[in-house]
Design goal:
Elements (H helix, E strand, L loop, with lengths): L7 H5 L26 E6 L10 H15 L3 E6 L6 H11 L4 E5 L4 H10 L4 E5 L20 E6 L2 H14 L4 E6 L4 H21 L4 E3 L1 E2 L4 E2 L8 H13 L4 E5 L4 H13 L5 E6 L2 H4 L7 E6 L2 H13 L6 E4 L20 H16 L11
Parallel strand pairs: 1-2, 1-3, 3-4, 4-5, 5-13, 6-7, 6-10, 10-11, 11-12
Antiparallel strand pairs: 8-9
Helix pairs in contact: 2-10, 5-6, 5-11, 7-8
Amino acid sequence: MRQAFRAAAALAAVALLAAGCAKPSSSSSSSTGTGAAKFTGCMVTDTGGINDKSFNQSSWAGMQAAAAANPNITVKYLPSTSTSDYAKNISTFESQKCGVIVTVGFAMGPATQSAALASPKQKFAIVDCSYASFCLSTKPHPTIAHNISQLVYNTVQDGFLGGYLAAGMTKTGKVATFGGMKFGTVTIYEDGFWDGVQYYNKQHGTHVQVLGWSEPSQNGTFAGSFTNITAGQTITNTFIHDGADIIFPVAGAVGLGSAKAVQTANASGKHVAMFWVDVDGCVQAATYCPYFITSVEKGITASVKAAVLSAAAGHSGSSYVGTLANGGAVLAPFHTWASKVPAKLQSELKALQAQIISGTIVPATKSPV
């Protein structure tokens, strides 16, 4: 149903279309490049902010990577401090005649869809939004605007690997996951994680428990926010108290509270670890790298870069689905845990990855992309 973006190398061979854009305003945006630009990529952040160590930050890195790859591209962004800023910021960039407007996060789905339908010649791309399944609350879904490129990630796949890894690493027989808010882009991770634990139990005859989420019932623990760090610390402390020694927050910046809770617990003599989500935590939250066994990633930076390059080459409306096969939904390197994850378990993970890619194993989820 969706067609993946062409590789950046192929796009570079396509003649770039010139598009007039206003120069970035230093009072409202950030930019790269100097002088007049033939093509401007404009990004509207979600409320987490440009330095959220998650979606916005990695999306902005993708914008900058596109500008670095093509000297005819310059990029800028506008921050959203509340949901009421979405439509306003999109409108501002439309008036500046941006070559492509990239919006970050499924919460911006309705505002992006409305703007795209009203301005069919304007190119858009949206991160982590599938209009066919979870990005609009209206059912049945309206006609999808042809000028939006949808960037989505099948994270049930790497979530499954993460659950299997957690089950293989726990010493207490209890692991935990929680979400920021109960959205499909969150629960798909948790479904994969839960299923991965169950698969490990089946293969090894163990009984590892998952706290915080149940794939069959679709019930679990949520912070009610993607920015409330205190909530993350409180929830994680509860999991640790209940015996979990590996925590997987699917909650953006809220995960920083989890990391603080893990750090504090270990300082008092416990042995707790965690996974980061969306991006490589050892890169984006390096202070806490010693506690991250791995990160369950989305290839956000690469997909945003490809979307901007594609738009600059004159394309519009394609869709990208990140998977294990194309590197858009993967486990990050183990970093400081490389010598701590048993070689046998690492070998099992590689075999599982191959089975998922081939379709021999299909992780279950009630929130498909």
